[in-house]
Task: structure prediction
Amino acid sequence: MGSDVIRLGSRGSVLALWQAGHVRTEVEKRTGRKVEITKIKTTGDVILDVPLAKVGGKGLFVKEIEEALLEDRIDLAVHSMKDVPTDLPDPLEIVCITRREDPRDAFLSVRHARFEDLPKGAKVGTSSLRRQTQLLGLRPDLSIGQLRGNLDTRIRKMEEGQYDAILLAAAGLLRLGWEGKIRQYLPVELSIPAIGQGALGIEIRRDDARTREAVAFLDDRATSLAVRAERGFLKRLEGGCQVPIAAHGIVAGGSVALTGLIGRPDGSEILRGSRTGPATDPEAIGVALAEELLSRGGKRILDEVYRQSGP
Result:
């Protein structure tokens, strides 16, 4: 497209629009080109009365946006990397991953200052099997309630007393300036984050050199390497949102250190492992860690979880 206008596709939630607006501001400042935001409703935005794990499929929050890219209705998309499947349509590419916001999970509660303070049988809201698995692994007595909706909806449900506490990604709260609502940042040792949590990905058509050039400066090398290792882990496990899988990478010097997890949704069996390797091939680190956990019983766990969750 020869126009000086760059068309950016985004989900319509408060957080998604903040993320899109952030990218728009940076690109306009850097290139002098105008960026127009188009709101696109995704399957994940429409189906709010069913747990994500039951909706099934991959790309619930990106499919319709990718279709707009493929049909040349937009030039770029801004995604939360944790929502992006590891396999993209051939003509599309994640060209850069922005500097990561805090990747940890956040504990929110009206009455309790810390996760450790929750009373026996407390009801905790989360839409994530990954969080559920790790919570129940630590506290089998907790009652897990499915929590869907935008950030403000989830927080309102907690404040109305529907939950004793809820868990959310800290990154979204920080981006919206809602850090005051966070009672505790859960350490990675307690709750390994979702693959790509806290990072934004910029997706374009592979042959669109002009848009590629306009957004290239947004790529953060350390974040990109860490997320590529995490996604290598996820891809080898063929994981979707029906299975409890987590991974978190840290770049130090020329190496990537990756911690990963496979577990049962009820927390009764959780496998954790770590692997460090050269940053020159981050995906290989993820694959190696996945192979290790699969050989330690992860394949049996995943097969059983997939069998129980159905097609």
In short: The two ends are 40 Å apart (CA to CA). The chain has a mean pLDDT of 90. The CA atoms of residues 9 and 106 lie 28 Å apart.
